[in-house]
Queue: 3 jobs
Job 1
Amino acid sequence: MKVMKLQAAAAGMVLAKDVITENGQMLLAKGATLSNAVINSLIHKGLTSIYVIESDAASQKEYSEEELAAVKEECRQTLLKRFYRPPATGMMQALFDAILEEMVVRKTS
């Protein structure tokens, strides 16, 4: 399993986890194969990253759910230290979340 930026996703990739909005609505189920139309739709909905099944598992480390959670928490703590104060508004929280996802993608890629 690999977390990746949605902009870098390609048609034919297979989801390793369900795609769920912040409101809890499931958009795509684990195992779904991405198409260009689906990728564009997810981008339009504001999603920034997804989990996909790696086609070349030997080239990169595979992360368990626990390892990914630990990486995300480590990145969250680092990011909190860089913010003047914790995000208080919806816009600041959205910015924080986007930066956090980017940090996780870079750390696990």
Job 2
Amino acid sequence: MQYEYVPEGVCSQKIFVDIKEDQTIGGIAFLDGCRGNLEGISKLAQGRNVKEVIDLLDGIDCEGRGTSCPDQLANMLKQIMAKESQPKSGTVRP
């Protein structure tokens, strides 16, 4: 399933993630930000389990901002997983 997220406190304007049914990352794309670094993060995360990516990226700081694009990706994934773990009584939209 594809998700879109607006990060806070970083150069990137949007993050797009595709999560497969087996909870692995199918693909990641960032809008704006440090292109080379974000492309590298995307390639390294692809095919990994969502929880593993969260564990690797959560809490990374960029120049004293208190967050970073990788940290914002982890925040996005945590929010997605929290919604996925809620009871399925209603419609949750990606």
Job 3
Amino acid sequence: MQGLRNLLLSAINRVGQAIPKRFQRRIAYFPGILAVFEYLSSYDLVEISTPEGGTIVINPLFHSNLTHSCDLGGYEPEIRKIIWKFTKPGMVAYDIGANVGVFSFLFASIVGEDGMV
């Protein structure tokens, strides 16, 4: 039964990635659909460590791109370089559209105790 459930979740994820974002949102707002997806995947939460020492808990159904990249230090390397270049200790950093917060941990490690994210 677990194998069938994993196969179903994998298929839902692949189909979801192929659908344009604007349609994904329409499907997600359909009454009850998110509750069903969350119920199907609720026991599969994954903890991923950030290079900055934090831990992010994600639902792989909604964030499969993160579960496949076990090393978040290699996640979006161009954006990470820009953040390192322009963010300084003590600054206030805004992680707009933070999603699960991968870059929030990076900002926090750079701005330090005197800064704010």
